[in-house]
Write a structure and sequence with these properties.
The complex is a heterodimer of chains A (276) and B (314).
Chain A (H helix, E strand, L loop, with lengths): L6 H25 L4 H6 L1 H11 L14 E4 L5 H11 L38 H14 L6 E6 L6 H12 L5 E7 L2 E2 L2 E2 H4 L5 H7 L3 E6 L3 H12 L6 E6 L22 H12 L1
Parallel strand pairs in A: 1-2, 2-3, 3-7, 6-7
Antiparallel strand pairs in A: 4-5
Helix pairs in contact in A: 1-3, 1-4, 1-10, 3-4, 3-9, 5-6
Chain B lengths: L3 E3 H15 L3 E5 L3 H4 L2 H6 L4 E3 L4 H13 L3 E5 L2 H6 L2 H8 L7 E4 L18 H6 L5 E3 L4 H13 L4 E4 L4 E3 L13 E4 L4 E5 L3 H14 L4 E5 L2 E3 L3 H11 L2 E8 L4 H12 L4 E6 L9 H7 L4 H17 L1
Parallel strand pairs in B: 2-3, 2-4, 4-5, 5-7, 6-7, 10-11, 10-13, 13-14
Antiparallel strand pairs in B: 1-8, 6-12, 9-11
Classes of the chains: A alpha/beta (276), B alpha/beta (314).
Chain lengths: 276, 314
C-alpha cells in the first residue's frame, strides 16, 4: 500500500475512474432510481482505496488479514458496486440488476453483496461501525486498517461526533476517515441547510489528525494517505474537496441529480461526455 | 426460603467466568457499568472492556463493527437507552446484518422504582420484538439469566436479554433455558397463566389463591418471547382452554400480544392481559408501583376468574 504510484499506473487508475463513472450512469439509468450526484463525487476515493491503498483479496472477500472498508454514505453504493464487480468480487452482469427484487445489489449497501462488510444507508452510523472494526483489528494485533467514507451532510448526525470522540479516546490510529465534501445535501447547500464548518477545527479539537485533498486527484489522495500513515496515536480524517455529480457537466453541482436517475436522453449525453 | 438475588449481579459474575474462557468476548457499557455490573469484567479484562461514555447509539455501532470482525460484543446499559434511544442503530446496523451482538439490558420495567418514568422501559419488548432476526429473552430469575446468557453465546445472531433492577426470588435452582422453549413452572388443568420476568413469581402467588378456590392453574414461564415457546403454550391451552398473560410491560406489543398473535391463528381461547395499560410510569417504591399499575397477584386472580367465566359460557 505504500508502493510508489508511477505515471503509467496513475494513468490506469484515472481510466478506471472514468469507466466506473460510465458504470454508475448505466446502472442508475437501468434501475430508474438512485443517487448519481454523491456516487460520482466519491469515485476517485473509492478507486484509490480499492485499486491502490487497501490490502484486499477480491477472490477471498473474508480473508482475515484484509483492510476493512465501510461506505457510511451508503447512497453512493453504485460506485462501490462497480469497483467491486470490476475487481471480481461478483460477476459484472449483476450491475444491471441494481435495486431489483431478490438481487445482491440493494439500493443501499448490505452484506449480501460480497465485499460489503456491514449495512449502511441510514446516515450517521458508519463511523461507529468503522471504530468497531478498527478496534477488533487492534485487539487481534493485526496491522490492518479501516477506511470509511462519510458524506458531508451526514456530519449533521450527532452519532458521528459520539464516534469521533470514541475514535480519539481509544487512539484508533488504524482508522482513516474520508469526508466527501461536495458541499451539497438533498435540500440545498450545506452551509444554508445546516452549516457543518469549521470542519478542520472541529476534527482537530476532537483529537484527529486532519488534512485536506482534492478528492478527484488520485495522486493527492494516495500521497495524503501515505503522509497520514506516519501519524501514530490518533485517528485520521481527510477532507476530500469534491464536486457533486463530478464528470458529467449537467450533473455537476446540480441538486436535481442528488436522488434522481438520468432518463434515456440524459444517459446517452452523460456517457458520450464521459467517453469523449 | 427461596434465594433472593439480582439477575444483573448474576450477569456480572457470569461475564467474568465467560471472559476467562473465550477471548472473543468484549464488553461495552455507556457509563452505567456499576449498575449493570459489567464493572467486574472491566476490572479483570480492561483491554476487552470499552466504556463508550453516555453515547448509546455509537456504542451499538461499535459493537456492530466488532461483531463483523469476529468478536462477541456484550452491550449493556439500562433498557430504555438501548431499546429506545438506539433502536434504529439496532435495526439498521446490527439486526439487518444478523450480527452477533448480545444486548443485555438492566433496569427494565416499572420496578426500577424511584428513578421514575424516564428510566422505566415499558415498551422495550415490543420495540425489540418487531425487528427481524432479533431474539428476545426475559429471564424470570438470576439462574435463568445465567442460562440465557450462555444460550445467547451459543446462538449466532443478535440477542436482547431484558433484566430488571430488584432482587428476585429464584423460581427454581440452576437455570434451565433454551431459545424458543417455554417451561412449565407448575402443572394444572383449568387455566394457563403465561408470565415472564418478575411476573412469574406474582403468578405463583396468584396460583396459591386460586388453588384455595379449587382452581387448578398451569403456570408457564415464557422467557423466550421471540421465538415464542409455542409447543408448551399450545399443549397447555389445549388442556385448559383459557389464558392470562402477565408482563411488567405495556400490554401493547409485548408477551401478551405475542401469545395472542399465535393463539388467535392456531387455537383461539379466551385471553386476559396483565400488563401496563397504556400509561407512563412514575416514581415510587417498586412494590407500590406494582400495585398502582395493576401488576400484583390479586390482579392476576381477578383476570383468571374473568377468563374462566367466559370459558364456561362458551
Amino acid at each position: 500500500m505504500d508502493k510508489k504510484l508511477d505515471k503509467n499506473e496513475l494513468q490506469n487508475l484515472r481510466k478506471i475512474a472514468n469507466e466506473v463513472r460510465v458504470d454508475v450512469i448505466t446502472m442508475l439509468s437501468a434501475a430508474k432510481s438512485g443517487h448519481p450526484g454523491g456516487s460520482l463525487s466519491v469515485v476517485e476515493l473509492v478507486v484509490s482505496l480499492f485499486y491502490w491503498v487497501m490490502n484486499i483479496d477480491p477472490k477471498n472477500p473474508k480473508w482475515e488479514g484484509r483492510d476493512r472498508f465501510h461506505l457510511s454514505k451508503g447512497h453512493a453504493c453504485p460506485t462501490l458496486y462497480s469497483v467491486l464487480a470490476r475487481l471480481g468480487y461478483f460477476p459484472k452482469d449483476e450491475l444491471n440488476k441494481l435495486r431489483q427484487l431478490g438481487g445482491i445489489l440493494q439500493g443501499h449497501p448490505h452484506p449480501r453483496t460480497p465485499g460489503v462488510e456491514v449495512a449502511s444507508g441510514s446516515l450517521g452510523q458508519g463511523l461507529s461501525v468503522a471504530c468497531g472494526m478498527a478496534l477488533a483489528d487492534r485487539l487481534d494485533r493485526k496491522n490492518s486498517c479501516t477506511y470509511v467514507i462519510l458524506g458531508d451532510g451526514e456530519l449533521q448526525e450527532g452519532q458521528v461526533w459520539e464516534a469521533a470522540m470514541f475514535a480519539s479516546h481509544y487512539r484508533l490510529d488504524n482508522l482513516y476517515v474520508f469526508i466527501d465534501y461536495n458541499r451539497m445535501q438533498i435540500d440545498g447547500k450545506i452551509e444554508e441547510i445546516m452549516n457543518v464548518q469549521p470542519l478542520i477545527k472541529k476534527f482537530e479539537s476532537f483529537g484527529f489528525y486532519v488534512n485536506e485533498v482534492d478528492g478527484h486527484n488520485i495522486k493527492e489522495i494516495v500521497d495524503m494517505i501515505g503522509d497520514a500513515r506516519k501519524i501514530k496515536g490518533k485517528p485520521k480524517v481527510i477532507i476530500a474537496n469534491t464536486v457533486k455529480g463530478k464528470g458529467v457537466s449537467f450533473m455537476e453541482n446540480n441538486l436535481d441529480f442528488h436522488g434522481k436517475s438520468p432518463n434515456n436522453g440524459e444517459t446517452d449525453k452523460a456517457i458520450n461526455e464521459l467517453k469523449a | 426460603m427461596t434465594e433472593m438475588k439480582m439477575a444483573r449481579d448474576a450477569y456480572g459474575e457470569l461475564l467474568l467466568e465467560l471472559g476467562k474462557k473465550d477471548s472473543r468476548i468484549v464488553v461495552l457499557d455507556a457509563d452505567l457499568s456499576v449498575s449493570t455490573k459489567t464493572a467486574k469484567f472491566a476490572k479483570c479484562f480492561p483491554e476487552r472492556f470499552f466504556n463508550c461514555g453516555i453515547a448509546e447509539q455509537n456504542m451499538i455501532g461499535v459493537a456492530a463493527g466488532l461483531a463483523a470482525s469476529g468478536k462477541i460484543p456484550f452491550v449493556s446499559t439500562f433498557s430504555i437507552f438501548a431499546s429506545g434511544r438506539a433502536w434504529e442503530q439496532i435495526r439498521n446496523t446490527v439486526s439487518v446484518c444478523n450480527l452477533n451482538v448480545k444486548i443485555v439490558v438492566t433496569h427494565s420495567g416499572i420496578s426500577v422504582g424511584p428513578d421514575g418514568v424516564s428510566h422505566q422501559s415499558l415498551e422495550d419488548i415490543a420495540l425489540m420484538r418487531t425487528i427481524p432476526e432479533m431474539v428476545v429473552i426475559v429471564p424470570c430469575d438470576a439462574p435463568e439469566a445465567v442460562a440465557a446468557v450462555k444460550a445467547a453465546i451459543d446462538y449466532k445472531g443478535p440477542v436482547f436479554i431484558r433484566l430488571g433492577r430488584p432482587k428476585v426470588p429464584s423460581i427454581w435452582e440452576g437455570g434451565r433455558f433454551e431459545i424458543g422453549k417455554a417451561q412449565i413452572v407448575k402443572e394444572g388443568s383449568d387455566l394457563t397463566i403465561v408470565a415472564c420476568g418478575i411476573m412469574v413469581d406474582e403468578a405463583r402467588k396468584a396460583c396459591e389463591v386460586l388453588n384455595n378456590k379449587n382452581i387448578s392453574v398451569e403456570i408457564i414461564n415464557m422467557s423466550s418471547i421471540k421465538p415464542l415457546g409455542t409447543d408448551v403454550l399450545m399443549n397447555s391451552v389445549k388442556k385448559t382452554g383459557c389464558v392470562v398473560t402477565c408482563e411488567e410491560h405495556s400490554i401493547m406489543g409485548g408477551l401478551g400480544s405475542a401469545v395472542a398473535e399465535y393463539l388467535s391463528v392456531h387455537y383461539p381461547v379466551p385471553q386476559r392481559f396483565i400488563g401496563i395499560m397504556d400509561r407512563f410510569g412514575q416514581s415510587g417504591d417498586p412494590q407500590d408501583l406494582m400495585t398502582e399499575y395493576n401488576l400484583s397477584f390479586d390482579n392476576i386472580v381477578k383476570a383468571a376468574e374473568e377468563v374462566l367465566s367466559i370459558k364456561k359460557k362458551s
